[in-house]
């Protein structure tokens, strides 16, 4: 709040030891505090009425960019199928589910079944998107799925908006494959009709976290806002004095730093083959190093020689270690469950493509390993990779490759593959 100079009344309360607002850092009022602004997306023209006017525009089917904590959301009325369809066109998102933000648990329970454990997760300070079993469908929100994602408001602006609307679609304000926008000058005006914003800057961009409840507790599908930076203690036997920077892979990336016996992991960063996401990757590294006073002496990357993370590591001029992709996944699970150093485990990594130690494409690995080494004891039979690295993004390509390997020219027609464009399927089968 340093950028908002206190008015006379706020300063009097702030400096009075007998006042309940004595030295309350976020003290503010309508005179000296942050201001909410509503404006047209293209022209920047100010629209009077603030939050009330914004709610009215959403009810009419307009799409708004609303400033949140880690970036802007694109918001519309989920009860207006036309607005939802238009939002999907803007986001180039044909079928992937859209998240909903509800005023309260009672509103969530109109559309989804909520267990006591799921209720607790929805109400935590992290305010994640929680995947819930669907009770009532909302057309276009989570097509062909039994689950629907809900979160509750987590900023004052959200609360003001949801008091008036009850329920909104709230998805990240970014074009396809780009990072979430945190500033108005990042092109959000091209994605919406109006912008509801305020004058408090967002310091670090972060998407909403996504989780579902599993048998042992919350299972994160995306760890981001509210749950990062995420520190994990490393077994004492593995402690070293050097600071380490670990860069992750290429798709759905995160980065981590190691210092004083802890691995500290960043928010979800997206796919690094997009230029904008790579800039996000670089700014996140700088943020972690500054926040935790890390000065890397070693850098770790994937084994793949052509990943952007590998090339970035090589440019740093530091001692450079490379780790096989699927082994890295198993190591992450060992650390998550605090497996003692030296204990052998059978790690099963059913991830996508990973560059193998033999220079081949690995996938579906059974690894006998500990923290220091692994032995590849079983794996899926190798088949041609239709489309190269594209198969990592489009798993149906690998499904067709294995079906062709098993059935030859007589590949069976499966309902799950009917959703794939027929021309694309035929093209892959001819490869």
Q: How are the secondary structure elements laid out?
A:
Elements: H1 8-15, E1 36-40, H2 50-59, E2 64-67, E3 72-76, H3 81-91, E4 100-102, H4 105-111, E5 112-113, H5 116-123, E6 129-134, E7 147-151, H6 156-165, E8 167-172, E9 194-198, E10 210-214, E11 217-222, E12 230-233, E13 244-246, E14 256-259, E15 262-265, H7 275-291, E16 298-302, H8 308-316, E17 320-323, H9 325-336, E18 345-349, E19 354-355, E20 361-362, E21 365-369, E22 374-379, H10 390-393, H11 396-407, H12 422-430
Parallel strand pairs: 2-9, 4-7, 6-10, 13-16, 16-17
Antiparallel strand pairs: 1-9, 2-3, 3-8, 4-8, 5-6, 6-7, 10-11, 12-15, 13-14, 14-15, 18-21, 19-20, 21-22
Helix pairs in contact: 2-6
Tell me what you see in this structure.
The protein is built from 12 helices and 22 strands. With 431 residues, it is of the alpha+beta class. It has 5 domains: 31 residues, no CATH class; 165 residues, DHBP synthase; 94 residues, 2-Layer Sandwich (Nucleotidyltransferase, domain 5); 54 residues, Nucleotidyltransferase, domain 5, CATH 3.30.420; 41 residues, no CATH class. Strands 1, 2, 3, 4, 5, 6, 7, 8, 9, 10 and 11 form an 11-stranded mixed β-sheet that branches. Strand 16, helix 8 and strand 17 form a beta-alpha-beta unit. The chain is globular. The termini are far apart.
């Amino acid at each position: 709040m340093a950028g908002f100079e206190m008015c006379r009344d706020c300063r009097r309360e702030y400096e009075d030891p007998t006042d309940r607002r004595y030295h309350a850092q976020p003290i503010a009022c309508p005179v000296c505090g942050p201001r909410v602004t509503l404006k047209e997306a293209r022209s920047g023209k100010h629209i009077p009425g603030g939050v009330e006017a914004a709610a009215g525009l959403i009810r009419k089917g307009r799409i708004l960019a609303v400033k949140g904590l880690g970036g802007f959301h694109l918001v519309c009325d989920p009860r207006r199928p036309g607005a939802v369809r238009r939002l999907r066109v803007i986001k180039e998102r044909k079928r992937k589910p859209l998240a909903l933000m509800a005023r309260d648990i009672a509103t969530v329970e109109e559309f989804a079944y909520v267990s006591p454990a799921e209720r607790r997760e929805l109400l935590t300070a992290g305010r994640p998107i929680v995947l819930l079993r669907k009770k009532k469908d909302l057309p276009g929100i989570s097509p062909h799925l039994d689950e629907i994602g809900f979160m509750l408001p987590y900023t004052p602006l959200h609360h003001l908006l949801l008091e008036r609307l009850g329920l909104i679609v709230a998805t990240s304000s970014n074009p396809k494959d780009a990072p979430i926008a945190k500033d108005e000058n990042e092109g959000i005006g091209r994605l919406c009709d109006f912008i509801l914003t305020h004058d408090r800057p967002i310091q670090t961009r972060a998407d909403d976290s996504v989780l579902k409840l599993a048998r042992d507790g919350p299972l994160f599908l995306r760890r981001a806002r509210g749950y990062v930076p995420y520190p994990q203690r490393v077994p004492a036997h593995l402690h070293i004095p050097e600071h380490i920077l670990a860069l992750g892979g290429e798709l759905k990336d995160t980065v981590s730093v190691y210092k004083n016996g802890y691995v500290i992991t960043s928010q979800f960063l997206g796919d690094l083959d997009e230029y904008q996401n790579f800039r996000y990757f670089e700014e996140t590294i700088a943020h972690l190093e500054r926040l935790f006073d890390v000065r890397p002496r070693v850098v770790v990357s994937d084994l793949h020689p052509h990943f952007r993370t590998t090339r970035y590591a090589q440019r740093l001029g530091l001692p450079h270690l490379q780790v096989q992709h699927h082994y890295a996944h198993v190591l992450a699970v060992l650390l998550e469950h605090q497996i003692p150093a030296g204990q052998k485990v059978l790690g099963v990594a059913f991830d996508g493509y990973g560059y193998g130690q033999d220079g081949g494409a690995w996938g579906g690995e059974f690894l006998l390993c500990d923290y220091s080494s692994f032995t590849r004891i079983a794996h899926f039979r190798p088949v041609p990779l239709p489309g190269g690295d594209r198969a990592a993004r489009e798993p149906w390509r690998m499904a067709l490759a294995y079906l062709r390997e098993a059935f030859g020219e007589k590949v069976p027609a499966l309902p799950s593959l009917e959703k794939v464009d027929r021309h694309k399927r035929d093209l892959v089968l001819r490869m």
